[in-house]
Design brief:
alpha/beta; Rossmann fold; Arc Repressor Mutant, subunit A; 6-stranded mixed beta sheet; 3-stranded antiparallel beta sheet; 11 helices; 51% helix; 17% strand
Amino acid sequence: MTKVVHFSAVGTSLLRNASSDEDIRNEIKKLNIEGWEYLKFDDPKQDKITANSSELKSKLLLFINKKGNSASAEIQSIEQAVEKFGHKPDDTLILLYSTNSANAQLAAETIQEYFNSKKYETQNIVVQSINSEDEFDKGLADLLDKVASKMIEWKNRGSDIYVNVTTGFKAESIFLALSAFMIGGKVYYRYETFNDIILLPSPPIIPDQNIVNKLSQILNSSTYIISKSNRYNLSDEDIENFTKNGILKEKDKDAYEIREWVKKFIDFANKIKKETH
C-alpha cells in the first residue's frame, strides 16, 4: 500500500547544472542546443532535444551518478525530504509534474528514471506550458485538473500527501500548496542557505462556502455567462468583487464569465466538501 505521496514540479535545473559537465557541454554544442534550459516551448531547438532524447538522458543519468543529489534541485529536495521524514521506497510514490516542452520532459523523465533505480514508484504528469498571460488560465486549470485532483484521489486511498514547493514556478506552487492545505496535506521547502527541509505551517484553509455555492450555481447551468438578463442572484457588489479578485473576467460590456482555473478550483472545493461530509 502506498502510504505517502510526494508531489513535485520538475523544472530544468538538471539541464542547467549538467551544462557544467564537459562531456555534456560538448554534446550540447554538437547538437546546437546551447541554452537548452531556457528554451521557449516553440523554439526549434526543442525538436533537436526530442530527436536526441535517449542519448541525452543517458548522459544526464551519468552526470547524476557523478554529482549525487546536488545534480538537480528536484532530486536534492525530494531525497532530503524522504530521509528526514523516514519515508521508505516500498511505501512511497513520487509524483512528478512537468510542462509539455521537450527540455522539461527530458529533465522529468531522467529524474523519474533515477528514482525508479532507487526502487521508488513514480509517475510523471505532463501539464500545459504557460508562456503568456493569455495561457495562464488554461495552464492553471490544467494543473488543478491533473495534479490537484490526484491529491484528493490519493488522500481518499488513505495516503499522506506531501507537496514539494522548492521547485517549479511560483504561481503554480502557490496554488498547489493551497490545495494541499485544503485537504490536510503537508508542504515542504528546502532552504538552500542552511541546506535543510522545512515543513511549512499548515493553517486550516476552508473556502468561503457562500462564494462556492454562488459559483457552483452558475457552473451547474447551461451557460457560464453572467449578464444583465441572467445574473444568477449575484449582486452588483458580488460581480465587482469577483472581477477585482480575478474570479470573473469581462467578456463583453455588462457580460462576465468565470475564469477557466476557477471552474477547476470550485470543482476541487466541492470534491473536498463531499469527502468530509
